[in-house]
Amino acid sequence: MNYVIIGNGPAGVIAAETLRKCDPHGGITLIGDEPEPPYSRMAIPYLLIGDIQEAGTYLRKGANHFKNLKIELLVARAEKVDSKNKKVFLNNGKTVSYGKLLIASGSRPISPPINGINLPGIYPCWTLEDSRHIMKLAKKGARVLQMGAGFIGCIILEALASRGVELTVVEMGNRMVPRMMTEAAGGLIKKWCEKKGVKVFTSTKVESIEKSTDRINPLKVNLSNGKSMVVGLVISATGVRPNIEFLKDSGVVTETGIKVDETMQTSVPGVYAAGDVAQAKEFYTGAQLVNAIQPNAADQARIAALNMAGKDAASQGAMAINVLNTLGLISSSFGQWMGVAGGEHAELLDAENYRYLHLEFKDDILVGATSLGLTQHVGVIRGLIQGKIRLEQWKDRLLKDPTRIMDAYLARTQGTNFKLAA
Ligand SMILES: Cc1cc2nc3c(=O)[nH]c(=O)nc-3n(C[C@H](O)[C@H](O)[C@H](O)COP(=O)(O)OP(=O)(O)OC[C@H]3O[C@@H](n4cnc5c(N)ncnc54)[C@H](O)[C@@H]3O)c2cc1C
């Protein structure tokens, strides 16, 4: 069998290696359009912090890793897929034929529709090339403005702050990480960042960016709250969008991403998708969603590759699990953290000590959670949600005291007999 993979990020690489294990003699071609060895975007913050060099971001360290596995690497952009004749057309004029195809083309940053967004000194933080530009400008004491305080935005914020820049973050939502954190938790993260010296504006938009007359800080950023900031670098972290445009007329059905079934097969037999580009079943609701995080990309890639190689593997559905370290404050959210219709919730808020735990239930099953400053519960919460474990009388105890989550887990999974709370 001749396998072709479009996209050489974590999903593409894991799929290629899984295919090689299952099919020692098949042809495997891995196509990526960035002029870099396959690397992990997740490692970029560590590069910005200075913990690693560029080579530390590479997904596989051995110089001959792919050659030894007989995986052919092509640097080119797939421009069109002809699924009837099983061909991929590349931007270098060449065509690659496939027996089975995996699309793992990931996503790319959205460029917000703001006047001045294309001025020099404004970058997303998505690729190794972006990070090279950022490192030139984000020197100690430099004035930097970051648009967006979502999950990726907060990861970048942490890296920028560690470079000693004078940082301002502008988020249009009413709290930080609004698509991952409850209002209470997002508000506490903001307070924490401000305490650590980062200026944060929430419920605020960047309205326009223009040239300033300051040679060191050549960008003037105008905000919807009436303020203007003069800075040397603007980072745009305002969300991402799956790379699906090249699939136009291919027959592969797309919506917000590429629609796949639980085997990661698309609407076209023999064509699969995995990672940030895939719109796959969500664990709890069964709705098809893009869940753009790396563990998800890795799981989906493995499942897709196994099926491509003729084995049986099915996804139980992607579950949102986000763990974030914002300037030393660990926060996490899981599954249906925002609650479900007819559900109940328990909340513990200790604002002074930056501790917070919010549990969401449907009947006696934990369906989601948000936590702050409490790291010891992460595995337990994940286990309860993914296992859909019936909490029985422990649900009422958790409604009174959510911190007893570990007791509940042990009692319901290992039969440990804990004394009832008063
Ligand atoms: C700064 C940063 C920090 C992050 N931190 C975390 C984290 O802590 N935890 C976490 O879970 N996730 C994190 N992520 C997200 C994570 O990196 C992504 O979920 C992951 O990279 C998805 O892998 P992928 O293989 O699907 O896509 P990608 O890694 O985006 O790889 C896709 C590749 O395909 C290429 N491509 C696209 N179109 C074509 C085409 N037509 N032809 C050829 N090649 C193409 C792309 O250029 C890219 O190289 C972070 C992302 C960033 C930017």
Describe this structure in words.
It is a single chain. By secondary structure, this protein is α/β, with parallel strands linked by helices. The chain contains ten helices and 26 strands. It has helices at residues 10-22, 44-49, 65-68, 128-137, 151-162, 183-195, 294-308, 378-386, 394-400, 405-414; strands at 2-6, 27-32, 71-75, 78-82, 87-90, 95-97, 100-103, 107-109, 122-124, 143-147, 166-170, 199-201, 206-211, 219-223, 228-231, 233-236, 240-242, 258-259, 271-273, 278-281, 288-289, 321-326, 329-335, 344-350, 355-362, 365-372. The strands form seven sheets. It has a five-stranded parallel beta sheet with strand order 3-2-1-7-19. A five-stranded parallel beta sheet has the order 9-16-10-11-12. The longest helix has 15 residues, at 294-308. Bound molecules: flavin-adenine dinucleotide.
What would a concise description of this structure say?
The chain has helices at residues 10-22, 44-49, 65-68, 128-137, 151-162, 183-195, 294-308, 378-386, 394-400, 405-414, and strands at 2-6, 27-32, 71-75, 78-82, 87-90, 95-97, 100-103, 107-109, 122-124, 143-147, 166-170, 199-201, 206-211, 219-223, 228-231, 233-236, 240-242, 258-259, 271-273, 278-281, 288-289, 321-326, 329-335, 344-350, 355-362, 365-372.
Mean pLDDT: 95
Tell me roughly what share of residues is in helical segments: 10-25%
Distance between the termini: 64 Å
Tell me the structural class.
alpha/beta
- As laid out across the biggest beta sheet, the strand order is 3-2-1-7-19
Task: Say which molecules are bound, naming each kind only once.
Answer: flavin-adenine dinucleotide
Global geometry: globular
In terms of DSSP E residues, the strand content is 25-35%
Low-confidence stretches: none
* DSSP, total strands: 26
From the alpha-carbon coordinates, what is the Rg to the nearest angstrom?
23 Å
Separate helix tally = 10
How many strands, which pairing sense, and closed or not: the largest β-sheet?
A: 5 strands, parallel
